[in-house]
Design goal:
Layout: E1 2-7, H1 14-23, E2 27-32, E3 44-47, H2 67-77, E4 81-85, H3 87-95, E5 101-103, E6 111-119, E7 135-142, E8 146-148, H4 151-159, E9 163-167, E10 178-182, E11 188-191, H5 209-221
Parallel strand pairs: 1-2, 1-3, 3-4, 4-11
Antiparallel strand pairs: 5-8, 6-7, 6-9, 9-10, 10-11
Length: 222
C-alpha cells in the first residue's frame, strides 16, 4: 500500500503521520503543497495536523487552495482514500470533500490532552479493526475543533452511519459530540483527534494503531 503525506508550511504532524503509516506497513512519500500532482500509484493521501499557513484567514482555507489539493480532490473523486487529521480535517472541509465546518472551540481555548473517543461505526476501512462502541484514548491538540453541521446535515450523517468517532468527553462543543466523519463513499475520513500520536506505547498508548492497521490491511488485500 502506497501513501502520500501532504506537507504545508506550518505542518507539524507530517512526520508523525509518516511514522504511523510505515509502522503499519505502508510505503510513504512526502509531497510538498506546491506539487501539482500525486506520486504514481498512491492509494491513500494523508493530510496531517499542524497550522498550515499559520491558520491565517481561516484554518485550512489557504491550504485548500494549494496546487496539490486539486490533485487530492481528483484522487478522492476517483475513489481514492483520504485521511485528514486535525488541521487536515479542516482542510478537507474547506475543499468540500467533507461536510460541515470547524469553528473556534466553545471554551475559546487551545485544548491539548488525551481524551476518551468512542468508535461510532466499524463500517469503514478506517475503523474495521475496532469494536463498535469501543472507547479509545486518543490525544487532541486544537484551537478550532468545534465541528458544526446544521440539523438536517446531522440527521443525514447519523442516518447514513457516517459518524466515525464521537467524543466521550466533548472538549470543544462539536455538534453531536462528533470527532470524525466519513464521506458519502466512506473513503474519506476527517477527524480532530490524533491517532498518529497513539501508536507507540512509549508515547503513552497504542489505541490509534488500529486505524492504520485497518486501513493498510484493507488496501493491501484489495
Amino acid at each position: 500500500m502506497k501513501a502520500a503525506v501532504i506537507v504545508f508550511p506550518g505542518s507539524n504532524c507530517d512526520r508523525d503521520m509518516a511514522v504511523a503509516l510505515r509502522a503499519a506497513g505502508a510505503e510513504v512519500e512526502m509531497v510538498w503543497h506546491k506539487d501539482a500532482g500525486l506520486p504514481r500509484g498512491v492509494d491513500l493521501v494523508a493530510v496531517p495536523g499542524g497550522f498550515s499557513f499559520g491558520d491565517y484567514l481561516r484554518c485550512g482555507a489557504i491550504a485548500a487552495q494549494s496546487p496539490v489539493c486539486r490533485a487530492v480532490i481528483e484522487h478522492a473523486q476517483k475513489g481514492g482514500y483520504v485521511l485528514g487529521v486535525c488541521n487536515g480535517f479542516q482542510v478537507l472541509t474547506e475543499t468540500g470533500l467533507l461536510p460541515g465546518a470547524l469553528m473556534r472551540n466553545a471554551g475559546i481555548r487551545f485544548v491539548c490532552k488525551t481524551i476518551p473517543l468512542t468508535v461510532a461505526t466499524t463500517e469503514s476501512d478506517f475503523t474495521r479493526a475496532y469494536d463498535k462502541g469501543a472507547s479509545l484514548q486518543i490525544p487532541v491538540a486544537h484551537h478550532d475543533g468545534n465541528y458544526f453541521v446544521d440539523q438536517p446535515s446531522l440527521e443525514r450523517l447519523r442516518g447514513e452511519d457516517r459518524i466515525a468517532f464521537t467524543y466521550g468527553d466533548n472538549p470543544n462543543g462539536s455538534t453531536g459530540d462528533i470527532a470524525g466523519v466519513l464521506s458519502d463513499n466512506r473513503r474519506v475520513l476527517g477527524m480532530m483527534p490524533h491517532p498518529e500520536r497513539a501508536v507507540d506505547a512509549g508515547h503513552g498508548g497504542t489505541d490509534g494503531r488500529g486505524l492504520f492497521d485497518s486501513l493498510v490491511g484493507a488496501l493491501v488485500s484489495a
